[in-house]
Amino acid sequence: MRFFLQRVAFYLFTAWAAITLNFFIPRLIPGDPVQALITKYQGQLSTKAIESLYVLFGIDKNGNVWSEYVEYWKQLFAGDLGLSFAFFPTPVSEVLSDSILWTLMLVGVTTILSFVIGTGLGVLAGWRRGSWTDGLLPVTTFFSSVPYFWLGIIAIYLLTGPDSFFPSGGGAEVGLVPAFDMYFIPSAIQHSLLPALTILISSVSGWILSMRNMMVTVSSEDYITVAHAKGLPERRVALGYAARNALLPNVSGFALSLGFIVGGTFLVEIVFSYPGIGFQLFQALGANDYPLMQGIFLIITISVLVANLLADVVYLFLDPRTRKEG
Amino acid sequence: MSAPVLEIKNLNVGYGLGDQGVRAVRDVNLTLHRGEVLGLAGESGSGKSTLAYGLTRLLAPPGVVTGGQVIYHPAEGEPYDVLGLSDERLRKFRWAETAIVFQGAMNSLNPVHKISVQLTDVLRAHEPKMSETSRLARAREMLKLVGIAADRMDAYPHQLSGGMRQRVMIGMALILQPQVVIMDEPTTALDVVMQRQILGQLIELRERLGFSVIFITHDLSLLVEFSDRIAIMYGGRIVEEAPAAAIYRDALHPYSKGLLGSFPALRGPRRELTGIPGSPPDLKGMPSGCSFHPRCPKAFDPCAGNIPVLGRPGTGDGRTRSVACWLHPTEEPVG
Description:
- The complex is a heterodimer of chains A (about 325) and B (about 325).
- Chain A has helices spanning about 1-30, 35-40, 45-55, 65-75, 90-125, 135-145, 150-160, 185-220, 220-230, 235-265, 265-270, 275-285, 290-320.
- Chain A is mainly alpha-helical and about 325 residues long.
- Chain A folds into 2 domains: about 1-75, no CATH class; about 95-320, MetI-like (MetI-like fold, Orthogonal Bundle).
- Chain A starts with a helix and ends in an 8-residue tail after the last helix.
- In chain B, the strands form 3 sheets. Chain B has a 7-stranded mixed sheet with strand order 6-7-8-3-9-10-12, sandwiched between helices.
- In chain B, strand 1 (about 5-15) and strand 2 form a beta hairpin.
- The radius of gyration of chain B is 21 Å and the shape is globular.
- Chain A: It is a multi-pass membrane protein.
């Protein structure tokens, strides 16, 4: 329990540091959003409108950084992330809650699927080392070294087109309202197939490779020989002894990749114009939309930290050696 | 001498096949009798562990048994060849008939499972009809037998000391009441006090439960004390086999003499310790004839040319012992 509280304290500190950085970094980017809006509306804004924009965005007062910082924290706790400049006047929190579900559904599901499939295949390949499964290795090495987005571009090039079943981009058919109905869901699934496959193929290979190698390492441990000598069924030795121990390093890798669900696959979303967080960040960057950027960075930071905390907790359950006595 | 329980006949074990392969165990003939402790000694690389892994079919590739038989005599029923068992029968044979205590006391237990789980999963695999409560009771009983408090059942391996872990392993080895227990350097990772304590306990348990032991070690002094008979291995062959006392008093093979000369006696007159010059032979390029002849102080004409056969020597107590050396040519080969 003490260990757990120590970890929580550590993560709270890290979160504070990250959020503070998050506050400062956008302010160091040159340019300001009102200028960007003026350009966007091509000078059709009156002077008064421009002034009121400055007030609205809260960048009218040349207040000192400290008071802005305090204000920023107050707003954070109220759940107010400010107004998006690019989707003005939609609040950032609303933009995020619209897009985060897309990302979670696409990348979340594929990350979990690829971990489960990859680990399973890795256990098999490691246990049956020397059989035909070794022939898969060059293929997995190839796919795990190929970047997601490149695979995505290739997929779009080869599989999409006017007559193709696969749409080349977007989250669902244009004009459909997101809802749990028979029009939206099939269309959303159809649109997510290609990006999902792209992520799955390139990430599953990494899991297969690392799990196989851990299995091979663990298989030469003394307790595996003992398990064989005990006359335990093959399944029990493979799963309860070898895979159970080989899984440990992979679990922390999995927690990290959970943390990167939100932030890790920008390029896939951009390639497929998928309306998730990554695509949103891409647009925010183009529009100097720093409230939105801050909001996205905040979410990425928090999800990475939460995933790490999760990894620590899961590790406590999986590996008795990490549990301190007393 | 009592009835045999395990007969090793012309066993050959190698690593790899063809030209690249090496022969780690060559034409070994050895018989383990009911209730005895048979010591197996030799330098590193002499093939003693390979012999143990080979006869239980636990060799990891590229290790392969290239020939011979391992005849096991069960308590009831016909003897059978372990090397010819089907996978399923082999699985049933393991641990129930022949249990092994391995070298690495530290790494023989699975770090993520409790002691109780690792003790009971043997029972679950071999006696599926046993109830969970009687399994746990049996596991607790075994811990008590090796002198570990029953509350350690819920401990994880890392919470036990090296000596305790090795005792858990011994308890685990005895849980199905096997007839043969193979000890592969069971105490090398432990300090000398713990060594004696654990071995003393084992010998006591053997008298109580009546199993036979094959005790593998490079520490001949331990064997002299704890075993009934000793077989000395060199270069994959057994070069001498005799009752422990006979080896200690009057070893016939120069290699056995060399091993005995390399540790101090506790009692008796002070004497100069001597080692064996040179190093163990390379398995890939075995010397011709007797593989010990390049290092042997007493090598003479026939040694380099012909391999001596293991057999009864012509000396007084020749009935109970055998040796493979041209100094003691035999007319009655073993095996």
